[in-house]
Specification:
Blueprint lengths: L3 E5 L6 H14 E2 L3 H9 L3 E6 L5 E14 L2 E13 L8 H17 L4 E7 L2 H4 L1 H5 L15 H12 L3 E2 L4 E2 L7 E2 L1 H4 L9 H9 L8 E7 L7 H15 L3
Parallel strand pairs: 5-6
Antiparallel strand pairs: 1-3, 2-9, 3-4, 4-5, 6-10, 7-8, 8-10
Helix pairs in contact: 3-9
């Protein structure tokens, strides 16, 4: 199945698109509600839609951009919210391309203000986007990027207040915010030896109950590698290309 992506504001989604997104989300996450889903969606800046040849939504990711000030210094935050891709479409790079487009737009608008990706992860697949993209982030299985922890603590505390524990780096919600369906929470045996997966499971042993691991990475070309650098470079060049 061939996918393409489209980036839209939540307010531009049609009624049928809202319905497709919620049904897709509810099919892969337990303990979710339509009200909570719509509330979260309305708070976001962009939605990355993953569409098949017939324009059916096969996945999506919600993104929020905002300015955060700590110690008199501003930084732009890109926060990734609800994300799901149909298992039949795993392996597609369209979500990665869409996210790079959003990140490139942020970098272009930010000028000299630092930009960071604030990611919360209740599944190892989400956490693996960090080593796929970035050289330095926190928490990292080799301790690279540990200096980011004070900023991560401040960003996570501001957004999630008492649900965030700065000691563990985990977010435990007082009420259900959705957890992976049992089949998606399983760890394939071939993944158990991956050091990043092992680290995620050590840091977030209760991920299957919807507990989130807070993560932060600087968004710069110098901090990317492999597919992340190629796609972010391409997206950045497109942002600066003449109309």
């Amino acid at each position: 199945m061939t996918l393409h992506h489209r980036i839209v504001a939540p307010s531009d989604l049609s009624g049928p698109q809202h319905e497709q997104m919620y049904l897709l989300f509810a099919a892969h996450y337990a303990q979710v509600s339509r009200q909570g889903f719509e509330r979260d969606l309305a708070s976001k800046t962009w939605v990355i839609l993953l569409l098949d040849e017939l324009e059916v939504i096969r996945g999506f990711s919600t993104q929020e951009t905002y300015l955060f000030t700590l110690g008199g210094r501003d930084q732009h935050i890109l926060f990734s919210g609800d994300t799901i891709i149909e298992p039949a479409c795993w392996g597609s790079q369209e979500l990665v391309r869409g996210w790079c487009t959003v990140a490139a737009r942020l970098l272009s608008a930010a000028g000299d203000t630092p930009c960071y990706w604030f990611l919360i992860s209740k599944g190892y697949r989400t956490y693996l986007y960090l080593p796929l993209f970035f050289l330095r982030y926190h928490p990292h299985h080799q301790g690279i990027g540990a200096e980011l922890k004070p900023l991560l603590d401040a960003v996570a505390k501001a957004k999630f207040t008492d649900a965030y524990d700065s000691v563990s780096g985990l977010i435990r919600f007082g009420e259900a915010h959705g957890q992976l369906a049992e089949t998606l929470a399983e760890i394939p045996s071939k993944r158990e030896d991956d050091p990043a997966v092992s680290f995620f499971l050590l840091r977030n042993p209760d991920f299957a109950q919807g507990v989130e691991l807070a993560c932060l990475a600087p968004i710069t070309l110098a901090n990317t590698h492999r597919i992340g650098r190629a796609l972010l470079t391409h997206a950045t060049l497109r942002c600066h290309a003449p109309a």
